[in-house]
């Protein structure tokens, strides 16, 4: 049978507003969850008063001189000049606060649960909108260009199995891009696919896919220049790679952080079909628009091609009765037209004839 341990009992003075604020002799001792005060009432009957730790306020805490107050009604005070009391109180108070700091801060159990849930949700939201994009950007910077080109080739091979390629238009559009004289760090390869859907998308490492329905709907070569400069910007600025890292979850992030590039490549290829409708953030879309606009103005190509391209896409969506695929993954078209037009108005870029692009454009239109 375990030995029962009795608490140390100390002489003290107890004061209560309900007893006229007079000092009454008392005995005090410590239990795990409370301070117990024993005294006699005015009729000589023994009375016990329980002070729970969370309601005790330290008014004075000197060696051999402690004064404690208790929250609530009536007002209560305990004074003790015992050296042993002051030492045990200090030790017990420290232990209670170390064990029950969370309970003292959040006394309601359900409140604790809700606060933990709220904190977890807040962390996850912050991670998705702030932390993961930052990590994805840092990883994209670390990716070897040769590896990015390699997974781009594998991804393209995976999604192109069912393509019906328009070889003639593919040749001409590649000539058109070459005539833009863009100094690219990636081997840009453009494929024109026969399809009634108006769409275009970029693959990591340099592949760009454009559907014939979109080219056939264009009225001006500047529209094609705008489209290619926009999709190329997604490649050059690693938007596709960064967005894939973000959209495919923590596996890619963890694998890439530990240098497991083979595992990352496998996931990229498995999800290659997502590239057709990959949605970029508004920030990345604007960055691609602005970079594409810069590429055109540096070459004295009329940047109104961007506005015309967006109008073509809007008209196509109305005639088809639904959003064209490119617009479904490139939202906020009206807003983008506005900031493109504002950029043009603010800088009034110089525009020159583009005979080389015109010749290729005419050949493209003859292929329809």
TrEMBL record:
<feature type="domain" description="Peptidase M48">
    <location>
        <begin position="171"/>
        <end position="343"/>
    </location>
</feature>
<protein>
    <recommendedName>
        <fullName>Peptidase M48 domain-containing protein</fullName>
    </recommendedName>
</protein>
<dbReference type="GO" id="GO:0004222">
    <property type="term" value="F:metalloendopeptidase activity"/>
</dbReference>
<dbReference type="GO" id="GO:0051603">
    <property type="term" value="P:proteolysis involved in protein catabolic process"/>
</dbReference>
<keyword id="KW-1133">Transmembrane helix</keyword>
<keyword id="KW-0479">Metal-binding</keyword>
<keyword id="KW-0472">Membrane</keyword>
<dbReference type="InterPro" id="IPR001915">
    <property type="entry name" value="Peptidase_M48"/>
</dbReference>
<dbReference type="Pfam" id="PF01435">
    <property type="entry name" value="Peptidase_M48"/>
</dbReference>
<dbReference type="InterPro" id="IPR051156">
    <property type="entry name" value="Mito/Outer_Membr_Metalloprot"/>
</dbReference>
<dbReference type="GO" id="GO:0016020">
    <property type="term" value="C:membrane"/>
</dbReference>
<keyword id="KW-0378">Hydrolase</keyword>
<keyword id="KW-0482">Metalloprotease</keyword>
<feature type="transmembrane region" description="Helical">
    <location>
        <begin position="113"/>
        <end position="136"/>
    </location>
</feature>
<keyword id="KW-0862">Zinc</keyword>
<dbReference type="GO" id="GO:0046872">
    <property type="term" value="F:metal ion binding"/>
</dbReference>
<keyword id="KW-0812">Transmembrane</keyword>
<comment type="similarity">
    <text>Belongs to the peptidase M48 family.</text>
</comment>
<keyword id="KW-0645">Protease</keyword>
């Amino acid at each position: 049978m375990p030995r029962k341990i009795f608490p140390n009992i100390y002489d003290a003075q107890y004061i209560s507003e309900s007893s006229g604020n007079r000092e009454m002799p008392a005995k005090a001792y410590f239990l795990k969850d409370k301070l117990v005060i024993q005294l006699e009432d005015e009729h000589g009957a023994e009375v016990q008063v329980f002070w729970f730790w969370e309601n005790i306020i330290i008014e004075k805490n000197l060696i051999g001189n402690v004064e404690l107050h208790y929250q609530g009604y009536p007002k209560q005070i305990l004074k003790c000049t015992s050296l042993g009391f002051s030492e045990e109180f200090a030790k017990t108070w420290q232990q209670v606060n170390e064990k029950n700091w969370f309970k003292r801060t959040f006394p309601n159990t359900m409140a604790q649960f809700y606060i933990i849930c709220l904190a977890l949700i807040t962390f996850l939201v912050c991670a998705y909108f702030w932390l993961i994009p930052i990590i994805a950007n840092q990883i994209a910077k670390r990716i070897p260009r040769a590896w990015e080109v390699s997974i781009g080739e594998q991804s393209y091979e995976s999604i192109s199995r069912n393509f019906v390629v328009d070889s003639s238009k593919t040749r001409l559009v590649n000539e058109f891009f070459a005539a833009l004289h863009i100094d690219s760090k990636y081997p840009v390869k453009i494929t024109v696919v026969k399809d009634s859907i108006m769409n275009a998308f970029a693959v990591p490492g340099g592949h760009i896919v454009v559907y014939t329905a979109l080219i056939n709907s264009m009225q001006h070569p500047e529209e094609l220049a705008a489209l290619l400069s926009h999709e190329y910007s997604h490649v050059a600025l690693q938007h596709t790679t960064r967005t894939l890292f973000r959209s495919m979850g923590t596996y890619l992030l963890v694998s890439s952080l530990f240098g497991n590039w083979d595992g990352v490549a496998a996931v990229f290829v498995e999800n290659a079909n997502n590239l057709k409708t990959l949605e970029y953030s508004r920030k990345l879309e604007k960055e691609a628009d602005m970079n594409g606009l810069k590429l055109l103005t540096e070459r004295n190509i009329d940047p109104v091609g961007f506005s015309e391209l967006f109008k073509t896409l809007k008209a196509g969506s109305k005639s088809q009765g639904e959003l064209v695929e490119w617009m479904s993954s490139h939202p906020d078209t009206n807003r983008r037209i506005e900031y493109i037009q504002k950029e043009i108005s603010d800088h009034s870029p110089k525009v020159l004839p583009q005979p080389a692009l015109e010749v290729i454009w005419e050949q493209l239109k003859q292929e329809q």
